[in-house]
Each structure stands twice: as C-alpha cells, then as structure tokens.
Design goal:
Helix content is 29%, strand content 26%. By secondary structure, it is of the alpha/beta class. Strands 5-6-7-3-8-9 form a six-stranded mixed β-sheet, with helices on both faces. Helix 2 crosses helix 3 and helix 4 packs parallel to helix 5.
C-alpha cells in the first residue's frame, strides 16, 4: 500500500488506555502528516511511551481508534532498548537487519551507512563493546537501511554524550528534510520543541496541548 498523500500518515482518535482498573490516559486525539516532526511531551508517568507503542501498532488502545496510512515495513520504532546483537559486529548487525526486510545491501553500501553515523571505524567491532551513544547511532543506521516513512523515537537521547546528542538532533531534522515523519518523545523538551513542527502534550491523563510547536511553551522540563 502506498500512502495517500491527501491523508495523514498517523491518526489517533479519542484513544484511551487502562491497565486493569487504572486509567493511564483518555480522549487522546492527534494526527501527523508527511514530513512532520511531532514532539510528545509530558511529565514522567504521563503515559507517553504507552501512547507511542499504541501509535506504532505494538499495543492496542482500550478505547478509541489509531490508524496508520502506511504498510508495516514503512514504519520504524526505536525504543529504550537498542536491540543490537552484542556478539556481532556493527557491519553484521546491519546485514542481518537488512535480511529481515529482504534487502541485500553490498558491503560498500553498509559502510556508507556506518560512515553517515560516524561508526565506519568501528564497523568490525562487536556491538556489545559499544557505548550507549554508539549503539543508538547503529540503530539510526538501521533506520536508514530500511528507509521508513514514519519513525517512532522513544527518548533516543537518554544517556547520550553531547556529541552523540547533537548528531541525533541533526539526523532527526534530516529525516524531515527527506520527507520522513517522526514521532519523538524527548528527554529535553525545552530544547527540542524548537526542532518540532507540532507538539502533543499529555498530562492529568488527557491532552493538555496539541498544535504548532511555536505555540507551545513548557513551564518545566518534562522527562
């Protein structure tokens, strides 16, 4: 299925989530169009990660509807866990991930991906020796490999050194420049709002703000 350019890539209508009798959130509605970055903001425990998993189709809402105007292979999700294979090299990890999508990139093509994220010198090193920043950059290379149209990023900057964090921010805006949409939970909302097009802020189990990033001014740093 090719995405309909007249439709949002992601639409959430009045989504709610319960765990047993405990309400996480309710009446969450938003949409993301092609080439947009949506920052998801809110305090710790507001349900941001739960909502993202629902948006990505990894969990079901207790009520409401979520629709993706994309094929599953056009969607990528990067959560707290890196899911790299520690006993395999960076190059082998990329080759394996490519095979899962029926891709057969050449070594030169894989090396170009690693160079793009600054890991070309670590291509033959086992990924288990990587710092968190290096592991996240390897995950970015994996995303480049499959060229998705919509990317979900759940606090990808957690634990990154300043250089890796700057690289991450540059690459996130680069996705938008190439027409890829990003739904992004950030650990640094005050700084990252400026990089987004729209903001969805949740708190008190409901939407507190949904609209242009330029109109959103968080009072405190969300986490």
């Amino acid at each position: 299925m090719t995405a309909d350019p007249g439709k949002p890539l992601l639409t959430v209508k009045r989504a709610a989530k319960f765990y047993g009798s405990k309400l996480v959130f309710k009446e969450i509605s938003c949409e993301v169009g092609p080439g947009q970055i949506m920052l998801v903001a809110g305090p710790n425990g507001a349900g941001k990660s739960t909502l993202m998993r629902i948006m990505a189709g990894l969990s079901k809402p207790s009520a409401g509807d979520v629709s993706l105007n994309l094929d599953p292979e056009d969607v990528a999700y990067l959560g707290h866990s890196t899911f790299i294979y520690p006993g395999m090299s960076a190059l082998a990890n990329l080759k394996f991930w490519g095979s899962m999508y029926d891709l057969s990139p050449s070594r030169d093509e894989l090396m170009q991906l690693l160079k793009r994220v600054g890991l070309e010198r670590a291509a033959e090193e086992k990924a288990g020796s990587f710092s968190r920043g290096m592991a996240q950059r390897l995950n970015l290379a994996r995303i480049y490999l499959v060229e998705p149209k919509l990317i979900f990023l759940d606090e990808p900057g957690t634990g990154l050194d300043p250089k890796s964090l700057a690289t991450l921010r540059r690459e996130i805006t680069g996705f938008r420049d190439r027409g890829t949409s990003v739904v992004w939970i950030s650990h640094h909302v005050a700084e990252d709002t400026a990089l987004a097009d729209i903001v969805l802020a949740i708190g008190g189990r409901k939407v507190e703000y949904f609209g242009a990033a330029s109109g959103y001014a968080p009072e405190v740093e969300a986490c």
